[in-house]
Write a structure and sequence with these properties.
Layout lengths: L1 E3 L4 E8 L6 E6 L4 E5 L8 H14 L2 E6 L5 E7 L3 H8 L4
Parallel strand pairs: 2-4
Antiparallel strand pairs: 1-2, 2-6, 3-4, 5-6
């Protein structure tokens, strides 16, 4: 779900588009990914842009989509923060 790499921290997410609002919705234990609801529809990259913007603001770091452009399972690369900072800000390992 959260891994360290040479470039930064990789966050694996599972996306549900066209939700009421953009938010983190827990952990998908079966997929081992963070569940994220996204308000934007999965059309013309709108949901992907909203995900990148949401996590950039939440984590205060540079975020880019590195895998899963057309899939619900996506990998995000987070630069400029440590894996511990990401875990702390996401509060999923309490």
């Amino acid at each position: 779900m959260i891994k360290e790499s040479k470039e930064g921290v990789i966050l694996q997410i599972y996306v549900q588009p066209k939700a009421k609002r953009t938010e983190i919705d827990g952990v998908d234990e079966w997929r081992k990914r963070l569940k994220v609801k996204v308000k934007a529809p999965p059309v013309e990259g709108k949901a992907n842009k909203e995900i990148v913007k949401f996590f950039s603001k939440l984590l205060g770091a540079e975020v880019s989509l590195i895998k899963g452009e057309t899939s619900r399972e996506k990998d995000l690369l987070i630069r400029g923060v440590s894996i511990e900072e990401v875990k702390k800000k996401l509060e999923i390992y309490r």
